[in-house]
Amino acid sequence: MKARLCVLALALVAGATAGRSEMASQVRIREYLGRTWEDELVSYPLPASLAGSSGVRASDEDGIVLPSQVHDGRVYILLTLPAGTEKILTFSAGEPALPPVQASAVENDGFVTLDSGLMALRLPAGDARQAMAGPADRVRGPVQGVKIAGGEWIGSSRIQAPVNVTGMQTRVAAKGPLFAEASVSYFFENGREYTLTARVTAGRRVAVIYEEMDLNPANRYVIPSYADDADASEWEWWSLADYGHMAGDGGNEQPANAIFSFRENLEPNQCVWVGGRSSHPRKGVNWEGKPLFEVESGTAYAPLTYEQDERFNRLTGWWLNSFSDRSYVFGMYNDRRPERPLVSLIMGRPSRNVNPNMNPPPEPWIRMVTGLNDMRIHLRRNGDIFALAPICLGSREWLLMVEPQSELPPREAGRFPNGYAEMLRHSYFPLDKIKDWTFDWPEKPEWWPRIFCKAGAIEEMKARVASATGEMARSQLIPATYRADGRTDDLLKQAQNYVETYATNLLSGRAHGGINWFHASLRIMQAMPIWEAVMAAPDVDPSVRARLKAYGAFIAQYAWDEDYWPHKRTCNGWGSANMGVLAAAARVMSAAAMAGHPMQDKWLKRCRGYLDGNLRGVIADDGSGVSCPHYLGASIDPIMYMALALKYGGGYDVFRNDARWPRFCRFMMDILTPPDPRSPASGPYYGLPMGQTAKSGEKLRRNLWPLGHTSRTEPTGILDMLALGMLGVDEKMAGMLRYMAAEMGQASGGAFVAYAILQNTVSRPVEPEFGSRFYPSYGAILRDGAPDETWFAIRYSKFAFDHFQFDTGAFTLFGRGMPLMMDFGSMYSPENHQPVYHNRPAWDVGEGELRPCPGNQKEGCFYRDLTYFEHRFEPWTCKAETFAEGRSPTDAYGVIKSFSSLGSADYLLGETEVTALQLLPYFPDTPAALAPDPNQKRIVEKVELFTWHRRVLMAKGNAAAPAFLLVRDDMIGKCPPVTVSHWVMADDVKTDGLAAKASGQFGVDLDLLVLEPSSAVLSTWSWSHRNWGGETQMCIRVRPPSCEPVSVLLYPRRKDEAPVRITPLAGGTAARLEGEGWTAWAVLSEKQVSVRDGEFEFEGTAGLARKFADGSVALSLSEAGSMKCGRASLRSRKPEERIFRK
Predict the structure, then answer these.
(1) Cystine design at 1061: which of 46, 111, 607, 1074 (Cβ 3.0–4.6 Å)?
(2) Rounded distance, CA 506 to CA 494, Å?
(3) Are 585 and 634 contained in the same domain?
(4) CA distance 785 to 604
(5) Has residue 143 been placed in a domain?
(6) The pLDDT of residue 279 is above 50
(7) Do 515 and 638 share a structural domain?
(8) 406 & 475 share domain
């Protein structure tokens, strides 16, 4: 049985009979998606039997002759296809029917006019390939006007290029009646060329414009090429072309451009555009008059005042990202002259927008300069508005739409302008493309499920679901029929929501997961497991199953469409490092699900490339990840989906073949905190609301290290998936993963795919053994393993960069088993990325009395010349290390230069070289402090190199003595004034000279003593947020005079324990602690130091000595040196420890 191809040509069937002199060919086109496609231009290959005919007519199953046109070996038909219908189209020799309104191409008076009947374009006529020589701006541009109602022409164009034009040639390719098409080519010195091709379709208000160019000034540009899918899947550092974030000549416009002006006879004074966000209210507000700020896309309105020469907006070639003033549709009109039209520029097909890269890039760390061929909308004081369209290299497609102003929806209607619908119709879902997709094919229900298990293993999926508890068991993404009491009706409701509704949202471009490919990827991953469950269900009504089958096939084919996710050679940025992984996983999961589909084999052959390529930049050789703990879910979850799909159905087990996986498994266990009283195992996903704690005796949950854009008490399902991946590969590791996954109480349901169907229910749980660990590509975890474990995590990395903050050298501390000094877990709502919100230094901290804003973006406002931000008072500011021109973001990160872990003490030395500082605003406890500050241009100053050293010495707790820490910061070289923040989960902080006592929120207090310098000043402040459960912390700030070293001792203490006596020694480079039954000496110094204190002697930079009541002594040298305590002594050239028992 042959596969039925739909919406599409079933086959070209020759209907020949004996004795007939004519050949007739038929195609069937069936509508599967429940929508009516109106006046669509569709095409089919011209049947060979009709190649010599003087005319080709097309008729439907009722014998009605349809308007048609033969062009370039294809038959084009203007077709309306009602929802749920099928048409049989017959092609035969004969006269075609004419449309009611015909398209034409006419040459006269030096112009070629392309006319659709509702709008017209005027191109310059000419056939002078080599007949001229001179500057580009002396020749007529490719579009010499747009005809509007009344017969007037608006607009003009010109060429701007650094090389001379040698000729121009205009060619008419099609003259109607369905469409007219012509191209204008410009020839330049050295054989360079720029061609604009325009097409208008009968009865349509839109012209399709496609440009190809290879001027390549100074040979600065190159079209990227990649060896294979793996090569093309790897994330690379990128920056949007000529955007404010890029230094050097990256901020300039390009040297060769086509310039399309819309001033003449239009003189627009208003604009309406569809995009994500505006940089300032004058550039776009929503219908309520508020600055546009959308997660997906919205409609913005703005007056065109021409008060300054500026780049006002830019038409994207693919997606909006988070950049401001970037649009899918940009419309302009003059509301004082309502008879004048609304003229809109609209994004064309993403796959046809091919951007060049710059070689070399403006910044050495940037691998891809993206969006270079985006059209820039400029305003000039003389009243001109024009689109600056680079013509250096590559290609660009865009639409030009002309419609009456009366067609613009009222602002309060909440509808997109018509240009958005035209974009969907042409650029994403033209029937001429969709008709060639397959929506029905022979298959059997027993082929499913199959993505994450062996084909047909539905009982295994049910067993996994049956073992789930907590939030994992409650996930709405679990296919209903996998539950013990699941009903097919419930599954169909899920399918309507996650499959059918998503497919229809795609076609309408509305709601989350529309044409924003990043969000669409999330929805595709959610849809596929539910879709395959429907395919496996034996009792679904055949008509319902067929409809859902078609929707799933539509989603899968969209995932593999180049307009959804253009190839990397089009040089479009994929957002942060986790985003390309999402699209790749959407493709792999779709391929795995589409059993029997005619495209499945072809798709599956490409899937390993997506997995291998994405793995290259996401997991380091030491097993750590590229992202903060939360966003490991965004990158690793999809990678796990790909890996498991290939393990079960793709013939490749990456868990067995890639040595990084066992290391990554260990890393994921290491970055889980001790059990947290804010998150009982049976409690909410994000833990209990602020102020609440678990009941006495209640099992507590471990969570992810709250680093970067990670929330406060957040679990993960990654360990469950890793346990499934390691099944049959390393059973001990699989068991340890199962054990630690259970320590999180199965509190995560799964954002994209239900973790319940991705868990290992077979391997025996094994409690892992933990110890301190150094990850060169991420940081270090120090822990003492005591029952009330002290756990210290610090970030240092030049590999991990995705969704972090200014948190190099910042630490998180669980003291005596309780959360004590935390990184704020607010993700980015609010975005507290400034260093003053982290346990680390900041420079030039400027606070004081609040100063009212003199007027947003007016003289004296911090945000003048920056993206608009709503605020009543001027922000405070601080500075953090950053990168300047010619440097990479990771150049500003620090590294751990030395690490040692001994039985009694852990030690590390972090080093950060500072060559530039970034000025950062922040606010006290005001609404502005909790608002998301938009993507701002960086304010950077270069500084003379200085080096920040952070040393940490952790005395591990045991039955005889508790844990404590020394943290020392040294600034080597000249630096601005420094402030070191120590945030504590405390209800109250009291300071006394150089000492501070913080009353902890969870039964453990913190005693802090500044050992060095003696002239430091302590102050306190607090900050709070209520997102993700909320948290309040109090800060103990240490300000030394100028750049003197800062060394503090941190002593976590249970509330029922007496304070210990702490005595600074050797100018603050050492301290003696005296507790009940023990005495300790700790040394931490930048340089070699000699310490003498009674029976204790030390030479070196870092070490710990402990003497206990029974006379035993533990000596720990964390770096080379010597030490003695009474009769016990130790000398070593490397980290070493000795225990002396009486």
Answers:
(1) 1074
(2) 17
(3) yes
(4) 46
(5) yes
(6) yes
(7) yes
(8) no
669 and 738 inside one domain? yes
CA-angle at 786, arms to 1075 and 666, nearest 5°: 145
- Measured CA to CA in angstroms, residue 1086 lies from 696, 978, 1045, 1076, 1133 at distances of 45, 17, 9, 31, 17
pLDDT band at 421 (very low <50, low <70, confident <90, very high): very high
Reduce the DSSP state of residue 1140 to 3 states and report it. Answer: strand
DSSP per-residue codes, 731-755: HHHHHHHHHHHHHTTT----SSS-G
Which of 363, 396, 428 is the last residue in one of the domains? 428
CA-to-CA distance for 455 and 649, rounded, in angstroms? 8
Nearest Cα residue to 703 out of 736, 669, 735, 726:
669
The domain tally of the chain equals 5
Same domain, 315 and 377: yes
- Judge if 378 and 500 occupy the same domain: no
Residue ranges of E strands in 304-391: 310-315, 326-333, 341-347, 357-358, 368-370, 375-379, 385-390
Q: Which residues contact 541 (CB under 8 A, 6 or more apart)?
A: none
Both 159 and 303 in one domain: the answer is no
Which of 769, 796, 818 lies at the terminal end of a domain, its last residue? 769
Question: How far is Cα of residue 1135 from the mean position of the Cα atoms in its chain?
Answer: 42
- What CATH number did the domain enclosing 589 receive? 1.50.10
Tokens of 838: 């982290």
Minimum mean pLDDT range among 13-27, 170-184, 607-621, 1091-1105? 13-27
> Best-predicted range by mean pLDDT among 313-327, 690-704, 784-798?
784-798
Distance, in Å, from the CA atom of 297 to the CA atom of 168, rounded to the nearest integer, reads 40
**Distances 304 to 8, 381, 856, 857 between C-alpha atoms, Å:** 45, 11, 20, 19
Q: Is residue 1052 part of a domain?
A: no
Cα atoms in the 13 Å half-sphere on the side-chain side of 972: 11
Q: What is the pLDDT of residues 1022-1032, one digit of tens each?
A: 998 888 888 99
Please determine, for residue 867, whether its predicted confidence score (pLDDT) is greater than 70. yes
Q: Tell me how far the alpha carbon of residue 795 is from its chain's centroid.
A: 22
> Do the strands 326-333 and 310-315 form a parallel or antiparallel pair, or are they unpaired?
parallel
Q: Would residue 543 count as lying in a domain?
A: yes
pLDDT of residue 8: 41
- For the chain, percent helix, then strand, then coil, each to nearest 5? 20, 35, 45
pLDDT at site 811: 99
pTM, two decimals, is 0.93
Same domain, 72 and 118: no
The 111-115 sheet, strands edge to edge = 104-108, 111-115, 120-124, 146-147, 153-154
Domain span at 1101: 1060-1142
On whether residue 1112 sits in a domain, the answer given is yes
Q: How confident is the model at residue 190 (pLDDT cuts 50, 70, 90)?
A: confident
- Would you say residue 685 has pLDDT above 90? no
